[in-house]
């Protein structure tokens, strides 16, 4: 199997992140690094059903220009507990130097307890392409046209695509 390309990312552990595992890949072919929760020791965060919280990770990063870090849910938390990253994927821009934080939401029906060091999300580093918008008076026609949500796979009952 071929080697996965790598890129150097600056990593700074913050004071409240001391003693936590550094974000890491769980296998040689993993796309995302698991991120730890940096809630205070002995002070778990209980996320009630239907609630959300901004959870610290205890670190900051420095990405190279032309890259972003995407913060994504962990599938195990989603399927077992209904816990997900609310703005998935969240984006950490290359020029951001603050703490990486995760917006966790409990979509399950039971309270979910976030303990210090628990793996709460994953981070995928990806290249960025910036679009150059070119104003046009008309756009070229396509088969879909202005068909909106569900217009390419669901039987329409009329109504707008918005």
Your description of this structure?
The protein is mainly beta and about 160 residues long. The protein has one domain (about 10-125): Distorted Sandwich (Deoxyuridine 5'-Triphosphate Nucleotidohydrolase, Chain A), CATH 2.70.40.10. About 5% of the residues lie in helices and about 35% in strands. The protein has one helix at about 75-80; strands at about 10-15, 35, 45, 50-60, 65-70, 85, 90, 100-105, 110-115, 120-125. It has a four-stranded antiparallel β-sheet with strand order 1-4-8-6. It has a four-stranded antiparallel β-sheet with strand order 2-10-5-7, with no helix packed on it. Strands 3-9 form a two-stranded antiparallel ribbon. It is globular and about 60 Å long. The N and C termini lie far apart (about 45 Å). The mean pLDDT is about 90.
Straight-line distance between termini: 45 Å
| Overall strand count | 10
Helix content: under 10%
Number of domains: 1
**Could you give a short account of the major beta sheet?**
4 strands, antiparallel
Strand order of the largest sheet: 1-4-8-6
Write the layout of secondary structure elements.
Layout: E1 10-13, E2 33-36, E3 45-47, E4 52-62, E5 67-72, H1 75-81, E6 83-85, E7 90-92, E8 99-106, E9 112-114, E10 119-127
Antiparallel strand pairs: 1-4, 2-10, 3-9, 4-8, 5-7, 5-10, 6-8
């Amino acid at each position: 199997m071929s080697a996965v390309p790598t890129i150097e990312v600056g990593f700074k552990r913050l004071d409240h992140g001391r003693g936590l595992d550094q974000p890491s890949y769980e296998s040689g072919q993993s796309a995302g690094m698991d991120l730890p929760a940096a809630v205070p020791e002995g002070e778990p965060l209980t996320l009630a059903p239907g609630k959300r919280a901004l959870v610290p990770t205890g670190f900051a990063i420095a990405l190279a220009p032309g890259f972003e870090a995407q913060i994504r849910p962990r599938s195990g938390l989603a399927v077992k507990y209904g816990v997900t990253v609310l703005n998935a994927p969240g984006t950490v821009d290359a020029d951001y130097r603050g703490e990486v934080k995760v917006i966790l939401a409990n979509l399950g029906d039971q309270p979910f307890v976030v303990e210090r060091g628990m793996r709460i999300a994953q981070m995928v580093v990806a290249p960025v392409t910036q679009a150059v918008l070119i104003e046009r008076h008309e756009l070229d026609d396509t088969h879909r046209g202005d068909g909106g949500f569900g217009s390419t796979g669901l039987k329409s009952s009329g109504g707008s695509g918005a």
